[in-house]
Amino acid sequence: MANVKGYEAEHFIVTAPAEYVLRVEINRPKKLNAFFEPMWLELGALMNKASHDPDYRAVVITAAGDRAFTAGLDVEAAGEGGLLGTSTNLDPARKATTARRHIAEFQDSITAIEKCEKPVIVALHGLCIGLAIDLASCADVRFCTKDARFSVKEVDIGIAADIGTLTRLPKIVGSFSWVKEVTMSARWFDADEALRVGFVSRILDNKAKAVEAALEYASLLAGKSPIAVQGTKELLNHARDNTVADSLRYTAIWNASMIQCKDTEDALLAGLKKRTPTFSKL
Prior knowledge:
- This protein is α/β, with parallel strands linked by helices.
- The chain folds into two domains: 12-222, Alpha-Beta Complex (2-enoyl-CoA Hydratase, Chain A, domain 1), CATH 3.90.226.10; 226-273, Lyase 2-enoyl-coa Hydratase, Chain  A, domain 2.
- The chain is 49% helix and 15% strand.
């Protein structure tokens, strides 16, 4: 299947299944969609492009194959001179500098999901290990299948998770105790537990239904004012990371400019005339 023009990638299938909706599918099923450096760099580039592309208003992330959304970091590849590789030719400070830069590059590639101006919906299935949690934590909405199994696995390979889970997961779920329990032990948790703590918002029977639900929700968002939807994402993320007073001030400044858009008038008139509004590209 050919990727959408401008979204060519070796390890992802990128399609446009509905108007204004972009689907990004992780495509390394023989390796359980495990990530190595070219993959996260590609994902970051795809999300950065989608962020400013007026042809799309919502992004859905899925994964090929039935067994895993992603098994996380490809440890074998990372150990061969990659993220976990070491060099005996460098002193400790230079090793640390190289590692820090590499980790920051990895973080930025995954954070591109969170920074994408468009809402991002992820449909999780099967094994969701390590990087799967990092990636999903950056998404705005998370659906999963009833057979999904999750693990923040990094401690079992001798490291603390460093791509975003330890930063974002405590702000997503309602219990800091639960976050510490699963991250320090690397224990598995299932879809029901993920729903109970608030990590996901829907459980679907199987992968096909999870993907279908994610695409339907993306289409719903894509039919609304892109200024309103993208503004809502921006303001919610700002509220998460700032005080109430600062967020109210930021919201006032944001809407002082954005409320002047034609979308507001179109939406109000459509409501009065009981018709579906259409909105210009952003």
